[in-house]
Amino acid sequence: MESIVFSFHKNEVLVRKEGDHYLFPTYQEIREQFDYRYLFSLDDTTCFLAKDTVEMDGFSYVNIQELRTDEKETKPYFYAMITAYQLNNWYRNNRYCGRCGHEMIHDQEERAVVCPHCHHIVYPKIVPAVIVGVINGEEILLTRYAKGFAHNALIAGFTEIGETLEECVQREVYEEVGLKVKNIRYYKSQPWGFVDDLLVGFYCEVDGDPTIDLDTSELKSGIWTKREDIVLQPDELSLTNEMMKMFKESKI
Question: What domains can be seen in the chain, in order of their start residue?
């Protein structure tokens, strides 16, 4: 069985560049030098997490976004790395009990940390968020964020406490572009460990007036776009891009 070890420093991951590909260190390369923790298995590959920053000849830390690729050979390891990154942040952020301040220990039966003093249990944080394809006849609403990601996207937002996913769809669409929607239907979901998300995709139709009232604090553009005019993101990793592509190809 193969193995890889993920080691993170802030938002960077330890890799060795070989041509156009990035390779992670293996358990065999790292086991004698550093402390590590088992994470999960990806088919026949066992994945570990180095508990501390690692220095190894030929390896260096690079921003995790540099590894974003949809190449067939690399794509599964990108998703594994993002899951490892999410777990690494969770471990680091939950070293001490939020109730009594004692140091947490790892549960022996499930993925959780437990306070040995007050027995408080903390599980990995998963944040539900919606991705919304708003349709008006043969057009879909494409947006661009006011900051950060520079490519086309769809309406998106985090679910609030006490809110259903469908209510979140309605609220986010109204807050960001001032539209009412109907016929909300689930498409699919995707874990997205950059910010602990579980993304849940929905399509819906505009209900009434399609005039866009843009929230410029969130978005810099919101445009009704015909299928043939949709410009997709530079890779096919995100649920957002898949949903835009499905509409572009008339599969929705």
Answer: 2-93 (3.90.79.10), 127-248 (3.90.79.10)
